[in-house]
C-alpha cells in the first residue's frame, strides 16, 4: 500500500540552486497537487493537475514549475531556490478535484 | 478575512472529556467539507467527510450548517492518542475546485 510517495524526505539547498521534488502515486488518481506548509500559514496550494498533460497554478506558484507526463508522477521543480522557499512540501492525490486528498509524508526543505 | 477560520486553541482536556471544535467558511459555493488530523511534523490525514445530515464515526461526530456556513467536530471520550492538530477543510467553489485549509486547532489530551 504505497499510496503517495515523496522523495527526498529532507533536503538542504543553497540559494540559487535548483532541484526537483518527486511525487508518485499508485492509486490511479487523476487529480494531484502540491502544497507548502509554513508555521501560522496553514497549507497553501502551489500547483495542481487534473490529469496527465494538464497543470495549472494554485495560490502561490511563483518560483515553482510542474509537469504531468504520466498519471502517476507529478514532480515539483524549484528553479532558483530562495530562503523564502524554506518549508515543508506535501504532495497529494485524489480521484476528483473536490474529493478527499491523500497526502505523501512530506519533504522538509531548507534553503540557506 | 480567511476563507476558512478555526480557533487555533490550544485545547487542553483530560482523558475521557468531550471536546468540540468549530469552523466557519466564507465561500458559500463550497461543495465538500472535511476534517483532517495532522500529527506533529506529519502529513494531514483524512479524519472524516462532513455531510449536511451530520455523520458519526465512532467517537467522532461532524455537523455541517450550510445556512450559517459552519462546520463542527465533536470528540467524545477523548484519548491520549487524539492529541493532534485538527484541520477544517472545504473544497469546490473556486475556479479550480481546490481544497482550502483552515490553520488548524491544536488539541492536547492529558492523563
Description:
The complex is a heterodimer of chains A (112) and B (111). The radius of gyration of chain A is 13 Å and the shape is globular. The mean pLDDT of chain A is 93. With 112 residues, chain A is mainly beta. Chain A has strands at 4-7, 10-13, 19-25, 31-38, 42-51, 54-57, 64-66, 76-78, 87-94, 102-103, 107-111. In chain A, the strands form two sheets. In chain A, strands 2, 4, 5, 6, 9, 10 and 11 form a seven-stranded mixed β-sheet that branches. Chain A has a four-stranded antiparallel β-sheet with strand order 1-3-8-7, with no helix packed on it. In chain A, β9 (87-94) and β10 (102-103) form a beta hairpin. Helices cover 0% and strands 52% of the residues of chain A. Chain A contains no helices and eleven strands. Chain B has strands at 4-6, 11-14, 19-25, 32-38, 45-49, 55-57, 60-65, 70-75, 84-91, 99-101, 105-110. In chain B, strands 2, 4, 5, 9, 10 and 11 form a six-stranded mixed β-sheet that branches. A five-stranded antiparallel β-sheet of chain B has the order 1-3-8-7-6, with no helix packed on it. In chain B, a hairpin with a 2-residue loop joins β6 and β7 (60-65). The mean pLDDT of chain B is 91. Chain B contains no helices and eleven strands. With 111 residues, chain B is mostly beta strands. Chains A and B meet through β5 and β10 of A and β5 of B.
